[in-house]
Amino acid sequence: MATEPETPVAASAKEPAVPSLVDRYFTRWYKADVKGKPCEDHCILQHSNRICVITLAGSHPVLQSGKVIKSISYQISTNCSRLQNKVSGKFKRGAQFLTELAPLCKIYCSDGEEYTISSCVRGRLMEVNENILHKPSILQEKPSTEGYIAVVLPKFEESKSITEGLLTQKQYEEVVVKRISATTATS
User: Fold this and answer.
1) Alpha helix locations (H) across 16-163?
2) I need a surface site. Which of 48, 70, 85, 103 has the fewest CB within 10 A?
3) Ordered per-residue pLDDT tens for the chain, 187 residues
4) Helices and strands (H, E) in the chain, number of each type
5) Which GO molecular function, any one, fits this protein according to its record (predicted)?
6) What is the DSSP annotation of 7-19?
7) Where are the alpha helices (DSSP H) in 83-168?
């Protein structure tokens, strides 16, 4: 009894999906309601070499409400610009040191809203993504890859403890579900 050969569509449906580069090499951590601002969530992609990539979480208002980003600024205050960060050498001399609440950049939307993106982890600022200054739309189109905000290197001694106070993917999804059920219950 001969069986018909499988169609390519049926064969691909049986194979597990290949994980993306980000899913394969990074662990996702989340900080919900940064600085007490509702829904302003950040995602921290932690690599096994302890480097952290700071991005926007999928539930952040900039990504959710179809907002148009007018501009992005790494100028934190009159005396502090994240663009002035110059890192050199094996020991990363010249890197700006960040605390968990240190602002990385400000996102200005066309509706007048302004969002301050925080570091969420203690460490040295390795680089900021200057590409989003020239093309802010990639922040919304590819937030986990080309649209990242900054790269931070935690101190070696603190690399295990930086995830304290951060949420896992599952915990974060539960927070988002609770938010959605709370908003549907009130309306």
Assistant:
1) 21-25, 61-64, 131-134, 137-141
2) 48
3) 554 545 445 444 556 688 777 888 899 999 988 888 888 899 999 998 889 999 999 889 898 877 889 999 999 888 888 888 888 787 778 888 999 899 999 999 998 899 999 999 999 999 999 999 999 989 989 888 999 999 999 987 776 777 888 999 999 999 989 888 887 776 6
4) 6, 9
5) actin filament binding
6) PHHHHHHHSPPPP
7) 131-134, 137-141
d(CA 122, CA 35): 15
Supply the pTM of this predicted model. 0.83
Residues 6 or more apart in contact with residue 144 via CB below 8 angstroms: 22, 43, 45, 55
Full DSSP string of 151-164: EEE--GGGTTGGGT
CA distance 152 to 67: 27
Cβ atoms of residues 125 and 85 within 8 Å: yes
Q: Where are the domains of the chain?
A: 23-177
Cα distance between residue 28 and residue 45, in whole Å: 5
Within 10 Å of residue 74's Cβ, how many Cβ atoms?
22
The whole-angstrom distance between residue 85's C-alpha and the CA centroid of its chain comes to 20
- Name which of 30, 35, 37 is nearest 144 in CA terms: 30
**Residues 107, 132 contacting (CB under 8 angstroms):** no
